[in-house]
User: Which sequence fits this backbone?
């Protein structure tokens, strides 16, 4: 487990560099991978109970990527904890018979708890898993589910949100990557999410909120989660920037998905590296 802020920020830098490398080879959902990269780093490198050598352990925490198009950032995090090599992700991504692709698939990759990609499905499935754990008498595992803010416009999200409260799923932690953009533009101009914290609160959820691109804040939010035995589900609303860390990608709808030229790749990597070194020095 990685626990200092510097180590976690370094891990997030490595993950972003891997994302950019992959993105220089082929088109990936880079905008939403980068926005959620810090959340995923703190979750996978610090927070979750997950042993890559015993992936069916009953006591493990479960992870569901409801915004299934952010498969690459998940795979690079799993590589970092030893599930497989990051180079394998790059080599096999979107190839015939490869374990990694635009959307996570557990038929070819056993580290994927649930295959996702069709938005609005992962969250209800995560609710079912959380209810199942309670029925089985497992009160030590949590279920973490990561959603997009565009994804909140799926009706199934709100059916699940209602049920999670009804079934007292305090072992369920929903995370919303609130980056303000979906595939076709700003959410405020498409469906209009309104006050999302207030909506979850009205449904009976416990709401936590933070800057989702700030590792220290994220760590503090995870540290204060209620115990899995609690009876109220928690949503962590993470305010993020789509394309975070690469200035020409930040808040740009066109970088929802895409491929980098060699020149763009080099400029993006040097910007990220410079930013890290300005803060922590060269080590
Ligand atoms: C049911 C469904 N409709 C449409 C899509 C196509 N799609 C893929 S990503 C995306 C945008 C999602 O926006 P958001 O949830 O905000 O994700 P992020 O911006 O974080 O990438 C859409 C519409 C899909 N995967 N599933």
Assistant:
């Amino acid at each position: 487990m990685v626990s200092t802020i510097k180590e976690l920020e370094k891990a997030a830098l490595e993950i972003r560099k891997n994302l950019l490398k992959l993105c220089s080879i082929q088109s990936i959902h880079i905008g939403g991978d980068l926005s959620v990269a810090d959340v995923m780093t703190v979750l996978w490198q610090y927070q979750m109970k997950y042993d890559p050598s015993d992936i069916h352990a009953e006591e493990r925490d479960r992870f569901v990527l409801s915004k299934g198009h952010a498969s690459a950032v998940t795979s690079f995090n799993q590589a970092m904890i030893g599930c497989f090599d990051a180079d394998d992700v790059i080599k096999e991504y979107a190839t015939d018979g490869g374990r990694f692709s635009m959307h996570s698939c557990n038929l070819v990759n056993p580290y994927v708890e649930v295959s996702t990609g069709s938005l609005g499905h992962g969250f209800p499935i995560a609710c079912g898993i959380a209810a199942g754990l309670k029925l089985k008498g497992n009160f030590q595992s949590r279920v973490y589910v990561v959603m997009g803010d565009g994804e909140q416009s799926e009706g199934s999200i709100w059916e699940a949100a209602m049920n999670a409260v009804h079934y007292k799923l305090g072992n369920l932690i929903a995370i919303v990557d609130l980056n303000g953009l979906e595939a076709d533009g700003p959410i405020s101009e498409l469906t209009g999410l309104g006050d999302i914290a207030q909506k979850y609160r009205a449904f009976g959820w416990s709401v936590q909120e933070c800057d989702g691109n700030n590792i220290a804040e994220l760590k503090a939010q995870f540290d204060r989660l209620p115990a899995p035995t609690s009876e109220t589900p928690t949503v962590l609303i993470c305010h993020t920037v789509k394309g975070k860390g690469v200035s020409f990608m930040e808040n740009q709808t066109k970088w929802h998905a895409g491929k980098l030229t060699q020149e763009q790749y080099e400029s993006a990597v040097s910007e990220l590296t410079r930013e890290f070194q300005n803060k922590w020095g060269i080590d």
User: Anything to note?
Assistant: The pocket of thiamine diphosphate is lined by residues 29, 31-32, 35, 67, 69, 117-120, 148-151, 177, 179, 181-183, 242 (CB under 6 Å).
